[in-house]
């Protein structure tokens, strides 16, 4: 297993080098190149231009520049943003990355579970009107033009019902009384999620070791999950930053809903197709002949086998979800990576745009790694 | 004597082309029967037909008659796609003169909608054609030759799959002037080397192991001949299926980019929403007061993307027999 993760990490490093190379040559392939943009800027004096050209090494041959750029990327030195001068690009990205991470981890997890369970029952109810309707609804939400969906969602939940805030990721009138950094709260939320996830994983492994009975395993798993969730809720409740965390979560509900709606259907449709193929297998007939209850056949025999293509699809849809994130983030003014990317492109802030693109790539790459490891855990046929 | 019977037999036999056409017609009829049973596919087909008729037939007719710039019922020289209607305050709600109202720049919404339709079709189909062409060629070549060619293209496909597609397009269009054809080219090239290659390669591998490939090899067919005449026709249905999904993807990408105002184009559905949005008519509470600015283009994008996807789902049942009811 460790060997497998190691080889995957090496692959990812190679992919990353290729990705950075593409971004670098893109920067230099634009009409005139980055050099002419600096030089033709009328606000700069000739001395300043010369200094910039020298400082950025723009008069060196291209391959030397490329080696330097590569070196800088891997030491996280991504240059200085034009539009937030003189903030380094890395600081901006380090600030925005946790926000994207939080939004998308929550949304993709929900989308996965919704898609998985609805796809399961869709295949089971093949041919009924409910199956037809939910397939159509699924495809419509899958292909709906995201801004259209967001306009309607903001209007309905934000204005008409008025239960969710319209945009931004925090309420200014709450945060004005504190000198607390939103960044810290984001990091604490991520930490809490990480702890809960880790406890769930550990309790699952422990239960697997201890007992051979499914009932006991489930009991251990659920009890430890409930305990850790309650404990973390309690800590947030008594801590002074609890209310700020709740504020962020409250602002997060609407974007998470949107990302879930646009991405659950992909999982659902793949799960449905995969279930339809599994149902025709012999072992399902055997299970029926044994007289097992319908629900047991569906959940234990069919769904577990049919799950693997859904996880593959999950891998493939990661890039799509991040792309959808550009629209979602910019329309909800959620200052994450997607919004940073869009605004840096619109402001012609090339160092920031390149940095944001590279880190979006890294984000997708690592999501793939995580999914690959989960895949290896789930599929008993895959052993490394 | 023998010669004359041969000739008479040959006269009775149809030419190979006619036989092939007949066979194709028969398989088309069979597949059409399966396709027409899937309600989703038929709905998608009808939506596409309606849009195609609206864009390619209705718009030219209307442009030549009602929206003619010198037509007497409107003021002199009003071009519904580019002109400003001075007779009213803009944006104006739907009225008899403007069936879907006008936008903040005084242009007729319905005219813009119809004017953009053929362009959306062109973009989607050109991008999907390039994708499928590249995907089919590379997928079958990789499957047929195997070895280092196979490994190279599969790793390349892995990289392309990992690419954050729309962020990448956003960066490209921010850096250079991208018009509709360039965009179609970029989308087609990028997605052609991606997932579609993997899928078509695996289909190609299945076909490569069939006995008729062996017999073709034995009878001395060249590699190129086998790929073009035996493998590609057999992966064609699958490529056609993925072409539908790619049309959806291309139109969606174009709409997203023009919604952010990043494309160098005159008019498109995404750009219509961009115009309304930047003019400040789509804000939280009052979106329904100006519904004609964003609902028609938004619904059109959703409908056309959904329709091509529906057709793809319908074709899926033709191509993949395991999904059928029986």
From TrEMBL, chain B:
PROSITE patterns: ABC_TM1. Its main location: membrane. GO terms for biological process: transmembrane transport. Belongs to the binding-protein-dependent transport system permease family. This is ABC transporter permease. Residues 117-312 form the ABC transmembrane type-1 domain. It comes from Mesoaciditoga lauensis. It holds the Pfam family BPD_transp_1. Keywords: Cell membrane, Membrane, Transmembrane, Transmembrane helix, Transport. It is a multi-pass membrane protein. GO terms for cellular component: plasma membrane.
């Amino acid at each position: 297993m460790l060997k497998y993760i190691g080889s995957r990490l090496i692959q990812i490093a190679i992919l990353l080098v290729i990705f950075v190379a593409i971004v670098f040559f893109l920067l230099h392939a634009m009409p005139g190149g980055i050099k002419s943009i600096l030089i033709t800027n009328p606000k700069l004096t000739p001395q300043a231009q010369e200094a910039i050209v020298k400082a950025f090494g723009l008069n060196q041959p291209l391959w030397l520049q490329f080696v330097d750029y590569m070196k800088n990327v891997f030491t996280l030195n991504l240059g200085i943003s034009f539009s937030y001068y003189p903030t380094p690009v890395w600081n901006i990205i380090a600030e925005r990355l946790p926000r994207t991470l939080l939004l998308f981890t929550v949304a993709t997890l929900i989308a996965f579970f919704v898609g998985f369970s609805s796809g399961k029952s869709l295949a089971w109810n093949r041919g009924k009107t409910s199956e037809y309707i939910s397939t159509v609804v699924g495809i419509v939400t899958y292909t709906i033009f995201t801004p259209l969906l967001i306009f309607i969602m903001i209007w309905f939940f934000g204005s008409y019902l008025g239960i969710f805030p319209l945009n931004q990721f925090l309420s200014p009138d709450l945060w004005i009384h504190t000198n607390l950094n939103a960044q810290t709260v984001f990091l604490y939320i991520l930490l809490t999620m990480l702890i809960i996830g880790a406890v769930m994983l550990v309790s699952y492994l422990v239960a697997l070791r201890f007992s051979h009975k499914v009932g006991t395993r489930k009991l251990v798993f659920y009890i430890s999950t409930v305990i850790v969730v309650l404990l973390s809720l309690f800590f947030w409740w008594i801590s002074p930053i609890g209310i700020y965390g709740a504020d962020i979560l409250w602002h997060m509900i609407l974007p998470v809903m949107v990302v879930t709606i646009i991405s659950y259907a992909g999982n659902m449709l793949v799960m449905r197709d995969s279930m339809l193929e599994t149902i025709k297998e012999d072992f399902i007939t055997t299970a029926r002949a044994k007289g097992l209850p319908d629900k047991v056949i569906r959940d234990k025999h069919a769904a577990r086998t049919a799950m693997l293509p859904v996880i593959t699809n999950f891998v493939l849809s990661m890039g799509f979800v991040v792309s959808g994130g550009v629209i979602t983030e910019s329309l909800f003014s959620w200052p994450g990576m997607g919004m940073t990317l869009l605004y840096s492109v619109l402001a012609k802030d090339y160092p920031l745009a390149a940095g944001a693109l590279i880190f979006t790539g890294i984000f997708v790459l690592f999501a793939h790694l995580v999914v690959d490891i989960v895949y290896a855990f789930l599929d008993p046929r895959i052993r490394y | 004597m023998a010669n004359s019977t041969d000739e008479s037999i040959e006269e009775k036999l149809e030419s190979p082309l006619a036989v092939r056409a007949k066979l194709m017609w028969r398989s088309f009829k069979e597949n059409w029967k399966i396709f027409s049973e899937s309600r989703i596919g038929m709905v998608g087909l009808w939506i596409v037909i309606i849009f195609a008729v609206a864009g390619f037939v209705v718009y030219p007719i209307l442009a030549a008659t009602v929206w003619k710039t010198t037509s007497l019922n409107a003021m002199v020289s009003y071009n519904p796609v580019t002109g400003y209607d001075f007779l009213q305050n803009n944006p104006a709600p739907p009225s008899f003169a403007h069936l879907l109202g006008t936008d903040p720049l005084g242009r007729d919404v319905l005219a813009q909608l119809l004017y953009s339709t053929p362009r959306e079709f062109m973009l989607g189909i050109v991008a999907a054609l390039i994708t499928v062409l590249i995907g089919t060629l590379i997928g079958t070549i990789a499957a047929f030759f195997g070895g280092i060619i196979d490994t190279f293209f599969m790793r390349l496909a892995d990289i392309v799959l990992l690419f954050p597609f729309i962020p990448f397009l956003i960066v490209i269009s921010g850096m250079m002037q991208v018009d509709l054809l360039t965009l179609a080219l970029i989308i087609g090239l990028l997605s052609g080397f991606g997932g579609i290659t993997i899928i078509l390669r695996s289909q190609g591998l299945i076909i490569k192991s069939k006995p008729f490939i062996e017999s073709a090899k034995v009878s001395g067919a060249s590699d190129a001949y086998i790929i073009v005449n035996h493998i590609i026709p057999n992966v064609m249905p699958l490529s056609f299926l993925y072409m539908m999904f790619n049309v959806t993807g291309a139109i969606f990408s174009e709409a997203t980019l023009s919604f952010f105002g990043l494309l160098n184009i005159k008019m498109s559905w995404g750009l219509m929403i961009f115009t309304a949005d930047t003019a400040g008519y789509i804000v939280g509470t009052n979106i329904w007061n100006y519904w004609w600015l964003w609902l028609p283009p938004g619904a059109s994008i959703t409908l056309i993307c959904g329709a091509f996807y529906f057709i793809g789902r319908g074709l899926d049942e033709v191509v993949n027999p395991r999904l059928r009811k029986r």
